[in-house]
Amino acid sequence: LGNILRSLKRTAEAAVRYREALELNPDYAKAHNNLGVCLKELKEIDVAAAHFRRAIELEPDFVEAVANLGSSLVELENFDEAIDFLEQALRLKPDFADAHYNLGKVLSTRCEMNDRVIQHYEQAIAASPDLADAHFSLSTHLLLKGDIARGWEEFSWRTRAHKNLSRPFPHPFWQGEPLTGKTLLVWGEQGVGDEILFASVLPDVIRAAKRVIVECEPRLVSLFTRAFPAAEIVPRSDPPHPHTLTADIDWQSPAGNLPRWFRPTLESFPAQAAYLIPDADRVARWKDWLDTLGPGPKVGIAWRSMLSGEHRDPHYTKLTQWSHILANREVSFINLQYDQCQPELESAREAFGVEIHIPPGIDLKDELDEAAALTAALDLVITAGTSVAATSGALGQKTWM
Predict the structure, then answer these.
(1) Are 233 and 214 in contact (CB under 8 A)?
(2) How many of the other CB atoms lie within 10 Å of CB of 82?
(3) Closest-CA residue to 276 (of 392, 125, 108, 172)
(4) What is the pLDDT of residues 181-214, one digit of tens each?
(5) What is the pTM of this model?
(6) Helix crossing, 63-75 with 79-92: angle to 10°?
(7) Under a CB-based contact definition with an 8 Å cutoff, are residues 381 and 400 in contact?
(8) Among residues 278, 277, 299, which one has the least CA distance to residue 290?
(9) pLDDT, tens digit (0-9, with 9 covering 90-100), for 326-349
(10) Burial environment of residue 397 by CB neighbours within 10 A (0 to 12, 13 to 18, 19 or more)
């Protein structure tokens, strides 16, 4: 009954039945494993790991329990032990796709050798060709290695790995066909930073096609309209903007698919300084405000995303880690962190005796055109890999990431 409920995605109810099975037989290894799977889905990782351990005590060669314990330990950030159990699972079952995938993931988190990570993702795919998460993870490491063409090809699996990457358009997907005389609808994906990064390909698309319609995050409409005047820029909405549904559109493409056709090699990336254009009057106003802060360079800073998670947090910092940078008294620091960060700014002031200036009258999260003008008025931006970095680089601003 527990198995039936789990197959119906009624996870909490399934967990109750597995517990009842264990009351009847505390040494039932499969019930321990299946309860652990449910608890893992319910984010009770510590308890899940305990049940996987008990299943292994009862049946040391229970390969699914060994692999499940390994993947749980990844989530608990107990990486050394996770590697041990995942490698044990592969000794028991060398073609275990999930174990290869999770071992690749933990080695990636540990910044192990890229080739070893790639090998495990490839073995996961060989054992389970439709394992979308393995394809998507492989794409990242192929791009990191410089295997650009293959990296973009694997990157197309992201739409299957992440079900929210879709739009309700009726047009066929563009697969690299000639765009001469054609109309292409491009839609943004993933997040503001990603939309800005992939927008670097839009000038190529506009030159190649007769007409280009770009659906983007509403906060980016004014920036994109100024930067790409030959395209029609419309805000993303549900239902979609009427101009995205017309019958004269030949193809649609998520923005992340464009580099596959326009950036197949490192050499195909143009050496361009900028592709976004800030509003000149706004830049001038921000320069006037920055001048009131005194002499010396004006440096914008941001240290994390407003989104957190096991795959994101290793790429971000805490402001308390910036002591050596903030110790420079010849610099005026400007806050570009776009969420509620006032307590962190106050803690930095108390710890380091430094004032991180808050730009007046601007919502850094929602007023992206204004934030772009402020960014362009600075001398330097130092930031973690967030939309602040994407915006700054796209403006041609000197950016340390």
Answers:
(1) yes
(2) 25
(3) 392
(4) 999 999 999 899 999 999 999 999 999 999 999 9
(5) 0.84
(6) 160
(7) yes
(8) 299
(9) 999 899 999 999 988 899 999 999
(10) buried
